[in-house]
Amino acid sequence: MIDIGQDDKETRIRGSNIKLGNDEYSEGIKKLATIKGIDAMQTGLTTLYTVPLNKQLVITSIVVRCTEATDVTGEASVSIGANNPDYNDWLGAYYLADLKDIAQNLIYHPNNLIIKSIYQADDVLKINITEGATGTSQTLAVDLFGYFLPAN
Fold first, then answer.
1. Domains in the chain and their CATH numbers?
2. C-beta separation of 45 from 62 below 8 A
3. Exposed, middle or buried: residue 87 (CB in 10 Å: 0-12, 13-18, 19+)?
4. Which residues are CB-neighbours of 8 under 8 A, at least 6 positions away?
5. Residue-wise pLDDT tens digits, 3-39
6. pLDDT in tens, 99-134
7. 20: part of which helix (H) or strand (E)?
């Protein structure tokens, strides 16, 4: 059963299986992962998610949150993707400007018509800290949202 509701501000579609054309999206958009404890002071890679077998993944948004910060004076630069070695095919190098305390987060959601990768089974998405933040300490968490398609 599909329940469609609409009011002045939004349209809601709920159901266990929603069939659009020839594709079946049985899980809908959901939070796929939360990765905590990313040290923004250190450059390097952190795995965010590995696409399950027999699935393709469409990422709809990513939230980068500051979970701990002490005297952050300069922002980190990050990229996100699955293209080894750069890991930047979803989000190219981006400075986390103004993400310097725990009351702030960066929500990256494409708001223009742009092309992004559809990730295949066993693709490994990573955040790449290409320039570390400066100051005493900063810790990040990343929330990954998206939905699955059947594998080709």
1. 28-150 (2.60.120)
2. no
3. buried
4. none
5. 454 455 554 555 445 444 445 555 689 999 999 999 9
6. 887 777 777 765 555 667 799 999 999 999 999 999
7. strand 18-20
